[in-house]
């Protein structure tokens, strides 16, 4: 039932309903049926399934000694108010002269105040990408953007919202700033969007202008390509491996005349040894795993990558 409660809090009501149904169908969990029935009734109410919600709440009010009777009765009154709204009371005043109706003044147009990010000189901007980030389509009305910047002071973070763009500034030292700009694929409501800071990350919550699912967060730019490569460590390892292979193949061509034909594996072993000696820790782990898998007759991830 904890899963059902968790999905209800996350506003994923259809999933919450499925888990409530499972608990109610399980006779071994009969002690939890009253609480589960109340949770399912609230879920029906959120899904605007008022008759189903009413049935769940009424079954609780009819049970003797049920601890959810008063809460269920309160929800029944809410449902009744939705289904049977009171009619407005009409008051007629005798001999009352109708007041002159003045045309309402048109409200002056107010431009939306959007704080623009300040200009930062190029020499004060961090040119590399020091932090990993990702986005999540939370629900129909919200999306989340997270930058994993640890141990940051609130004064080092600034977030600027526009209808089609967000900008996050992180001061990485006294003179350098990392700026992450996202050209959004869909529009947001800047006034209703917020951000929070934890010990490990900056979380930006975006309120969508139109309540629909997002399948893409931002328009494709050169930065998004670099960030995708940073988030995929295997792409960096593959590039390092390819660069080392290219260098060693050139050296192997020069040494062909001195290769011992009686030992055809010698050149390969020399090349692997150079790869191991000149590679970083990640490369050494990859080569070690490749050699271990080769001895056991398995295909390593490194071999599979080189065949692609």
CATH topology of the largest domain: Immunoglobulin-like
Query: Taking strands numbered 1, 2, ... along the chain, how are they ordered across the largest sheet?
Result: 1-2-7-6
Task: Compute the CA-based radius of gyration.
Answer: 32 Å
Which geometry do the CA atoms define? flat
General description of the model:
The structure is a single chain. The chain is an alpha+beta fold. It folds into 3 domains: 2-83, Serine Threonine Protein Phosphatase 5, Tetratricopeptide repeat (Alpha Horseshoe), CATH 1.25.40; 122-231, Immunoglobulin-like (Sandwich); 233-307, no CATH class. It is 42% helix and 13% strand. It contains 10 helices and 7 strands. The chain has helices spanning 2-9, 13-25, 33-46, 50-61, 69-83, 222-231, 233-254, 266-278, 281-296, 301-307, and strands at residues 133-136, 142-147, 157-162, 165-171, 177-183, 194-197, 202-207. The protein has a 4-stranded antiparallel beta sheet, with no helix packed on it. Helix 3 packs antiparallel against helix 4 (50-61) and helix 8 (266-278) runs antiparallel to helix 9. The two termini are 46 Å apart.
Short description:
This protein is 42% helix and 13% strand. It has helices at 2-9, 13-25, 33-46, 50-61, 69-83, 222-231, 233-254, 266-278, 281-296, 301-307; strands spanning 133-136, 142-147, 157-162, 165-171, 177-183, 194-197, 202-207.
